[in-house]
Design a protein that fits this description.
This protein is of the alpha/beta class and 257 residues long. It contains eleven helices and twelve strands.
Length: 257
């Protein structure tokens, strides 16, 4: 069944986008992009309708700046002899949750999916297909790291350490440049711009929904912003609403027990 996301301020990251307030997603791809009133009723009559309530919408963010942090986690966690499987699972859950909350629809990693010794790969769930392996591209930030101890604190709480995703803000010059890096420019660097990086009919339906228009924010405010919804290939991989319900459920369960 198709899903229509409407009443949004869509930034397609294409050169001649025009006005876009809705998209129709079907079978993991964009079936229609434009004004909802112009959509073919054959697509939308039985579609699920999602009101974005004026939110700003971008192509799903491509996170090419967490690779080194994830490698650092794998390198350092094996030395933590007191970490249990539950500790590792909890850290990975929080790390992925943080990257998703920042808008990451695609999370890239160096090396193959079956990289020897990678506990992140062993304990994480890639059922959504949104982890992209064997990525050779290195960001300027990563190249400049050298042998520094930047990731010394990688095993601390990933929700507050700012060592994942956030390096993109240091690597870019302003909000507009960052949005380019997270979308079309990032896709081109990875050689996947035929499928990702812009919102166009026929492309894979990745979306990042933000509550405010980042073009009206300065870099400091934008770097502190979070997404409300993230889609990869047409399926939600993060929902602020669902996360809040999960937290409420877990809190009530803890009190009950």
């Amino acid at each position: 069944m198709a899903t229509v996301y409407y009443n949004g301020d869509f930034h397609t990251m294409t050169e001649d986008a025009g006005s876009v307030n809705a998209v129709c997603v079907e079978n993991g791809r964009f079936a229609a992009v434009g004004n909802y009133t112009d959509f073919d009723p054959a697509l939308t009559d039985d579609a699920e309708m999602v009101n974005l309530e004026g939110a700003s919408v971008f192509p799903g963010f491509i996170d090419t700046h967490s690779c080194t942090g994830l490698d650092a986690f794998d390198a350092k966690v094996v030395k933590k002899m007191n970490w249990t499987d539950d500790d590792i699972t909890d850290w990975i859950h929080d790390a992925v949750k943080y990257m998703r909350s920042k808008g990451a629809a695609i999370i890239t990693m160096h090396g193959p999916e079956d990289k020897p010794g990678s506990l992140f790969r062993r304990f994480s769930d890639n059922s959504s297909g949104s982890f992209f392996y064997n990525v050779d591209y290195q960001s300027e930030f990563e190249k400049d790291l050298g042998d520094t101890d930047y990731y010394e604190g990688i095993l601390s709480d990933p929700l507050t350490s700012f060592l994942l995703f956030n390096p993109v803000y240091d690597d870019c010059d302003g909000v507009r440049d960052t949005l380019q890096e997270l979308t079309i420019r990032g896709a081109r660097k990875l050689g996947i711009d035929d499928r990702y990086g812009t919102i166009e009919v026929g492309k894979c339906a990745d979306l990042t929904v933000l509550p405010h228009n980042p073009y009206l924010q300065n870099m400091r405010s934008f770097s502190r912003s979070f997404s409300t919804l993230v889609l990869h290939d047409g399926e939600p991989v993060y929902s602020e609403h669902d996360e809040a319900l999960d937290e409420l459920y877990n809190m009530m369960l803890t009190q009950y027990l």
